[in-house]
Design brief:
With 267 residues, this protein is an alpha+beta fold. The protein is 42% helix and 16% strand. It contains 10 helices and 10 strands. Strand 4 and strand 5 form a beta hairpin.
Length: 267
Amino acid sequence: MWPLFVILPAMQYKEIQEQIQKVVDFEIDSIKLLGSGMANTAYVVNGTWVFRFAMIGEAKRTLIKEVSILPVIASSLQVGVPNPSYSRMQPDQSYFVGYELLPGEPLERNRFNRLAADIQSQLLHELHDFLIELHAIELVRVPALEEEAYVGAYNQTQRHFHDQLSSVLGPDVVHKIEAVYVAYEADLANRSRGPVVIHSDLKPDHVLFDSNTGHLTGVLDYSDSALGDPDYDFVIVGVFFSEDFLIRLLDYGNERDKARILRKAPF
């Protein structure tokens, strides 16, 4: 999780402020570092805006994608999402987007576990609704999204990795992995459902909630969004939140979907 409001050298703030001031229609009174990773650095401006700067080439590509898709996603969902109001995407210059700061705090597992049972149920229901609404977005509205080889669970590009790594894995392991694939493929119910719009990275840091009302307030970070199997989003929830959390989340769908997703998750 990114640290909040770290102090930066005054010169760095000045350079960032100058870049942001060129695109906004308001005066900048304050700027603080929200957090920094390998791909992006984010700042809070005037306590109400977030400006995220791409630090590497891949992050520039995903920012361009997000600027295209987020207005559509925002208009399709009940929960808040970052919706860029400002951006600069010019070669040989900084790539950044600016959007209103979403309220709430990350839905970390320890926080969730301390909530009252009715609030937990409410959040699970709202997160389930978010995924159903996201997966229902018409693909023609998000032409910037495409199916990606390593996003969305089972993919033919991954089918023969074990054969390619046979010198490392050994014949017994390769045989066991092949048997798992064969059994999985024999069950037609396991076939990919979609493609649909998927988030692909639903971890606690990306899900915000209001600790006072107990409502979901936002879902962040669509840099990994793509077209894929909707079941993958649910599986990712199980990876990052816990299997028990996923089982409870799936209670808001039907039993057939729940059984299928839980069967596909280990694969």
